[in-house]
From TrEMBL:
Residues 87-220 form the CTHRC1 C-terminal domain. InterPro entries: CTHRC1_C. This is CTHRC1 C-terminal domain-containing protein. It holds the Pfam family CTHRC1_C. The lineage of its organism: Eukaryota, Metazoa, Cnidaria, Anthozoa, Octocorallia.
């Protein structure tokens, strides 16, 4: 027995298919939209993290700059207040120079002086040696130079080493030269360590040695105000 369908049944079936297809499209677009929203939210979150990181870095730089240029006013014992600035310091290190010269410049360190009315504190720390001699004539002088000249305000920064009584005594000692120097123009300054003849010494004799098998250093500090 054959079964026949009415045309109205076919139309209903076709209409249902269209509705289902449309629902599937809506579901597909809804899923895609949700995925796009989640992807956008992730990108936005990463962007916020990057902005926060950059902000923290900039804040740290501002704080460091403020510390480097900060000033403070101090008053002691009823005297007038004086403004002090954070000192500028540089260190040059030299490893195992093993410098055996008896005269001349041993090493230099460049420094950028920021103020014309400031003082420089210069320190050498490291190995020094002079071989002794039995005739009592051996002496060597280590001294600091600034732009090729010794400090004259207030005085040279130097140290003598005399060794006599026993011949050929080869003893290395830790040595320090330290002092302040005024009246130095601002700008590039070349600080040097030199060795030579002792002041007020008749003889120009002495076997010197500097910075043997160790690290020696020149430390330069700019000080804005001194008593």
């Amino acid at each position: 027995m054959k079964k026949y369908f009415k045309s109205s049944d076919i139309q209903i079936s076709s209409h249902d298919d269209k509705v289902q297809a449309q629902d599937k499209k809506i579901q597909y677009y809804t899923v895609c939209r949700r995925r796009n929203i989640k992807s956008f939210q992730r990108r936005l979150f990463r962007m916020k993290q990057s902005i926060i990181s950059i902000g923290l870095i900039l804040l740290s730089m501002v704080v460091l700059y403020a510390k480097a240029t900060s000033t403070c006013s101090c008053s002691c014992g009823g005297h007038e207040s004086t403004t002090y600035q954070t000192p500028l310091v540089k260190q040059c290190t030299f490893k195992s120079l093993n410098d055996d010269r008896n005269k001349g410049q041993i090493e230099t360190c460049d420094f950028q002086k920021a103020h014309s009315n400031s003082a420089l504190r210069v320190t050498y720390q490291g190995d020094l040696r002079m071989i002794s001699c039995s005739n009592g004539r051996c002496c060597r002088r280590w001294f600091i130079t600034i732009n090729g000249k010794e400090c004259s305000s207030p005085a040279p920064i130097d140290a003598h080493m005399y060794a006599g009584g026993v011949a050929n005594l080869n003893v290395h000692r830790p040595g320090t030269l330290d002092g302040f120097c005024n009246n130095i123009a601002k700008g590039k300054v070349t600080v040097g360590l030199s060795v030579g003849k002792c002041n007020n010494w008749s003889y120009d004799v002495g076997d010197a040695y500097t910075c043997s098998r160790s690290v020696c250093r020149l430390i330069i500090e700019e000080i804005l105000s001194m008593q």
